[in-house]
Design goal:
The structure holds three protein chains of three kinds. Chain A is an all-alpha fold. Chain A folds into two domains: about 1-115, NADH-ubiquinone/plastoquinone oxidoreductase chain 6, subunit NuoJ (Four Helix Bundle (Hemerythrin (Met), subunit A)), CATH 1.20.120.1200; about 125-170. Chain A is built from six helices and no strands. The radius of gyration of chain A is 21 Å and the shape is globular. Chain B is an all-alpha fold. Chain B is built from 19 helices and two strands. In chain B, helix 8 (about 195-215) packs parallel to helix 11 (about 260-285). In chain C, about 75% of the residues are buried. Chain C is about 75% helix and about 0% strand. Chain C is mainly α. Chain C has helices at about 5-25, 30-55, 60-90. Chain C has one domain: Helix Hairpins (Orthogonal Bundle), CATH 1.10.287.3510. At the A-C interface, helix 1, helix 2, helix 3, helix 4 and helix 5 of A face helix 1, helix 2 and helix 3 of C.
Chain lengths: ~170, ~475, ~100
């Protein structure tokens, strides 16, 4: 009798891998984008299984909520021609397939040979407090750098999308 | 208690960037030229600050240590940013828009490099890397009136994001096997246990990810197109700054975290170095565009720098630090000349450089001596740099002699393609309708400065080598 | 019983699928999607290592949060570039990356 953890894991794993394959293999980019959304939701489910509830919420908000929607918007904005053939393979597809398979074999061997000394202790009492302490304690430099990074990205994205506007001399 | 006072360089740089961003919005359009001068002055002040406080040392956080090594690299980035700013004066003014944002992003890129070169902890290191990378994606695409620029931007972004994903996978495996993201901790855990297969795989991923940033063959394919499409001052800054920052971080990771895993990364780095030297130099020969030629030359220069890592010694690290600084001046000199030429003639083709010596003796001289320094011809500063790099490899082990000889041979090859530019400039005839080049006063001063430094350090390199080797030593201190 | 190896294997598979998408597609947006899959694989790895190896700490989760943040910034800039290029090249096919001289 499999435990509920295992059932959920296999269900979520099937969801994640299946929809990820659909993202890569489908030829309609709108479908790819929708399956991407599904992958993100599946990964959020895995986070809940791993007792990272806050991360799951962030995953849903940012990945599924913002990034996937942004991608769908971009797809719609630059849409043209036959949408059913909007996401074709490049000439590098076969070499890419070989590279990916070889890499997977390598990593699988590495994982298989590794004896991970895992133990399942209860997660921290208050994970949010612990996260906050890390963000503003040990990783505060990264936190501040991230703020400047977001600022630069916003400024840059607006500049680039707006394109050239000649200012009066 | 955490000593945030030691972060003064990072804080001052961030403040300068934010100030420029605000300034660009506040001042009226006519007076925006002032922003460029303000940036140059600010960067110069930061450089002076870095020099005056080079004795500062201490630990801010477990994985963030201020030492001479980091201050040396900070001065290097600030020098490069300063020269790139001077280069940008006319270039950006001619683009005529969004100047405040341009200079602010340039300063933020410098900040990213500083964090990348200082951090001894994987998360902070990654954030620094990405700050540098994302600002560069934007800056590369900044010539909004030229489709080539945006194409270079998207190409750089896609390949950059791919390489950081690979790098991150390596980081995750390292975290998984060592249980820490602090490099010194990782080093301790590794030396106490045996080498795990997953750990080695993680290390390979990390080296692959960084190879992209240092444009080592076979991860160099983005460089020529991006260098060609980007605004020339940004190309210059990208080729010296981001490469030096990636080297700083790679050296930290390899020597602090994976010192006793050298049996694995040494052959890998050797292969990357050989491929970069050979391919970079050979493919540069048929190039017709100055920026593409300098891109391949920069791939080759990355190969020479990797030799210092192969030597795995203090001598090698010091040689890298010294050569990286020289490379800033030589490469910036070459790109300054290219920018001055482009500002006048709107061309980067070598054949259009014909007769440049008669139209602008100073620009031609800067180009001549910069490429001569890149080729390592005495008495220019590149010569002692290459001498240190090659001898550090031989000093490690005589069986590496072939590597030094290969480097020498490839330097000889590089003379050939550098000479093509020189030949065009000095023997060709200018098109009759072309007059003298208009070069701004600031650019002329910077060119003279670069020339002076290239000669001074070529004849008397001791002050800089002492500084570089002292900086290298601090890396190995516990 | 689900062990750490299950999660790492799942992550490896997702990473390779993402790599296939990033290397084997023509459309710039599709390449970005592949890269997002790879980043998600990294995050699964980090969170799983965190949960199984250091359950009392949250370092892996912090790393994952930073990666999500950077990914969002990267996608924003990337899509801005795609739209910028599309506007200029209304006559050509944005899906075709051949003009990039790979």
């Amino acid at each position: 009798m499999p435990d509920s953890q295992a059932v959920f894991f296999w269900l979520l794993a099937a969801l994640v891998i299946g929809s990820a394959l659909a993202v890569v293999l489908l030829k309609n980019i709108v479908h790819s984008a929708l399956y991407l959304f599904l992958t993100f939701v599946g990964v959020a489910g895995l986070y809940i299984l791993l007792h990272a509830e806050f991360l799951a919420a962030v995953q849903l908000l940012i990945y599924a909520g913002a990034i996937a929607v942004l991608i769908v918007f971009a797809v719609m904005l630059v849409r043209r021609g036959d949408i059913r053939l909007s996401n074709l393979y490049s000439i590098h597809f076969l070499p890419a397939l070989v590279v990916s398979l070889v890499l997977f074999a390598l990593v699988a061997v590495a994982v298989g040979r590794q004896l991970w000394l895992g133990y399942l202790a209860p997660p921290p009492e208050e994970p949010l407090v612990s996260l906050a302490r890390n963000f503003l304690g040990e990783y505060v430099i990264a936190f501040e750098v991230a703020a400047i990074l977001l600022l630069s990205a916003i400024v840059g994205a607006v500049l680039i999308v707006r394109g050239r506007r000649r200012s009066a001399p | 208690m955490v000593n945030f006072g030691l972060l003064y360089m990072e804080i001052a740089t961030a403040a300068l960037g934010l100030m420029l961003l605000a300034w660009g919005l506040l001042v009226p359009k006519r007076e925006r030229q002032g922003i460029a001068y303000l940036t140059a002055a600010g960067l110069l002040a930061l450089l002076a600050l870095a020099w005056c406080t080079r004795g500062a040392a201490g630990t801010v956080l477990p994985g963030y240590t201020i030492d001479l090594y980091s201050i040396y690299f900070k001065s290097l980035f600030l020098t490069a940013a300063f020269l790139a700013t001077i280069c940008s004066f006319d270039y950006v003014a001619k683009m005529g828009f969004n100047q405040g944002e341009y200079y602010a992003l340039l300063v933020f890129a410098t900040l990213g490099m500083m964090v990348l070169a200082t951090s001894g902890e994987l998360i902070t290191l990654y954030l620094g890397l990405e700050l540098m990378a994302i600002t560069f994606y934007i800056l590369v695409a900044y010539r909004l009136d030229d489709p080539k620029s945006a194409e270079a931007g998207i190409k750089y972004l896609l390949l950059g994001a791919l390489s950081s994903a690979i790098l991150l996978y390596g980081f995750s495996l390292i975290y998984g096997t060592c249980g820490s993201t602090v490099l010194r901790e990782i080093g301790k855990r590794i030396s106490s246990g045996q080498a795990d297969f997953a750990l080695l795989l993680g290390l390979i991923f990390v080296i692959a990810g960084f190879s992209f940033k240092v444009t080592a063959v076979p991860f160099h394919m983005w460089a020529p197109d991006v260098y060609e499409g980007a605004p020339t001052p940004i190309t210059a800054f990208l080729s010296v700054g981001s490469k030096a920052a990636a080297f700083a971080a790679l050296i930290r990771i390899l020597f602090l975290g994976f010192d006793n895993q050298a049996f694995l990364w040494l052959p890998l780095v050797t292969v990357l170095s050989v491929l970069s030297m050979v391919l970079g130099n050979l493919v540069a020969i048929p190039q017709k565009n100055v920026k593409r030629l300098l891109a391949y030359s920069s791939v080759a220069q990355g190969g020479y720098l990797l030799l210092g890592i192969v030597s795995a010694s203090l001598l090698g690290i010091g040689a890298i630090l010294y050569y990286a600084m020289i490379y800033v001046f030589a490469n910036m000199g070459a790109f300054m000349a290219a920018t001055a030429f482009y500002n006048n003639d709107r061309s980067d083709e070598i054949k259009d450089y014909a007769g440049l010596a008669r139209r602008a003796p100073l620009v031609a001289a800067v180009m001549l001596f910069s490429v001569a320094s890149l080729a390592g011809i005495p008495p220019l500063a590149g010569f002692p740099g290459k001498l240190y790099l090659f001898s550090s490899v031989v000093a490690r082990d005589y069986s590496y002699l072939w590597l030094a000889l290969l480097g020498l041979l490839m330097s000889a090859v590089s003379v050939y393609y550098y000479l093509q530019i020189v030949k065009a400039m000095y023997t060709g005839n200018p098109a009759p309708q072309k007059g003298a080049l208009q070069v701004s006063r600031g650019m002329e001063v910077a060119m003279l400065l670069v020339l002076g430094i290239l000669f001074f350090l070529g004849i008397y390199p001791t002050p800089l080598t002492n500084y570089a080797f002292k900086a290298g030593e601090t890396l190995f201190m516990p | 019983m689900i062990t750490l190896n299950h999660y790492v294997a799942l992550s490896a598979l997702l990473f390779c699928i993402g790599l296939l998408g990033a290397l084997g597609k023509r459309n710039a947006i599709a390449i970005l999607m592949g890269i997002e899959l790879m980043l998600n694989a990294v995050n699964i790895n980090l969170v799983a290592f965190n949960r199984f190896l250091q359950p009392s700490q949250v370092v892996g989760q912090v790393f994952a949060l930073f990666i999500i943040l950077v990914a969002a910034a990267e996608v924003a800039v990337g899509l801005a570039l795609v739209i910028n290029i599309y506007r200029r090249r209304l006559d050509t096919n944005i899906e075709d990356l051949n003009w990039l001289k790979w």
